[in-house]
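Everyone, study these two lines:
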Amino acid sequence: MLPKYSILPFCFFFFFFFFFAAAAFNLTLPHQHPNPEAVVQDVQRRVNASISRRQLFSTSLKDQQSQCLTGNPIDDCWKCDPNWGNNRQRLADCAIGFGQNAVGGKGGQIYVVTDSSDQDTVNPKPGTLRHAVIQEEPLWIVFAANMQIKLKHELIMNSYKTIDGRGVIVEITGGGCITLQYVSNVIIHNVRIYNCVPSGNTNIRSSPTHVGYRGKSDGDGISIFSSRNIWIDHCDLSHCTDGLVDAIMGSTAITISNSYFTHHNEVMLLGHDDKYVPDNGMQVTIAFNHFGEGLVQRMPRCRRGYIHVVNNDFTEWKMYAIGGSANPTINSQGNRYIAPMDPDAKEVTKRVDTNEGEWSDWNWRTDGDLMVNGAFFVPSGAGLSVQYAKASSVEPKAASLIEQLTGTAGVLGRPRDNSVSISFGGGTTTGDSATGYGGAGSRGGGDGGDFYGMIFGSSAPPPATSRATTAMFLSFLIIFVMYFSISSTNNYYDLLSLLL
């Protein structure tokens, strides 16, 4: 016989263990990596290994693999297989960086989209993309033919889905575009996303069993809200009303790679607002992308978190490339930054609404970056040499290889979007803190709502739950459940079976 109160010391032990473990590793989100430097080094090793393989095989003209090896570890992972179409789900093993564990629909059935229409957001028609993305089970979603999908309202995705546009040309445009909210394990690959505009004030189905009311959306290309294990690869994004990719409200474990960004003002926002503490755990890898014509700022704009910007090609900005506030860690490695002709816009970096006395300790680092046409990166942080000592033996490849690494950025097999006929959206261009129509000022202000965040529009952000508060709540919840479970059990072996 085991007294029911004997479980209490056991529970309190676990409470203090989890509380101090979270404090020691500075964990604010349950799925953030406790050692981001290890992830950075792993990315570097993979890039170096792929480049070394390319150099080795290119010495032999008879080696057929030399035609597919690019030095880009993501592409080399699957493109060298001439029969990749017979094993599409191999792609799920090819991600790198913080989003490398995004499995998408791996292991699930292939769902073929045959209908490009989007007429009913409550009862979507089978065969449409909307019907595919709301299902509960893992699905690998492909397309029967080239198609343009003009969304009526936001496309709200469920967890464990892959949108795979390889082999065809898929364009997604219209109302709201893609929303990832309270989900995990999503891969979006090889689609063009453009001309996304605000929409909403309607009911939208987010799963087979749930329909909710949505207020007006911001018009993001891809909106990531409180989600994790997300990988965006080989996409074209341009001409949206708000951000091309926004990740906020405790989202983490994200990789954005091999994509082509053009004709937009506020390109990418990472972080809800400066006071939202859980975003300390946001971790994002931005790799092998091309930031091209018609871009103004926010490539990305970061609030808190750890952002690894590696082997990207920045060929245009009008204000700055990388900005931040609220002490984010920015690790810039092996990128090429080509400054504009404007003598007042040569600086790559911008600390937003923060004086130097505050940002001088922020951990911003440039390593192996190539600065062109007068571009310059302003690093900061007194502890850089100590923090990065472990990575010194695995240096990022020189930015001189950047055209090789980013040469296929964007949708594969499709001409890049270099048009200038459509003006970019995203607010005014008078400064990073400007908040024009639908800009980051409105998105950063917070999204209130019911289940799945189905109502937008609240100007007040959700409460910023601190690390200590979260740990205490979870621990006492565990104590409560275990205590009252044990109170109904008078047998020692029943206790063991409950704990195990």
About this structure: The radius of gyration is 23 Å. Confidence is low (pLDDT under 50) at residues 4-23, 386-393, 420-500. The longest strand covers residues 170-175. The CA atoms of residues 308 and 331 lie 5 Å apart.
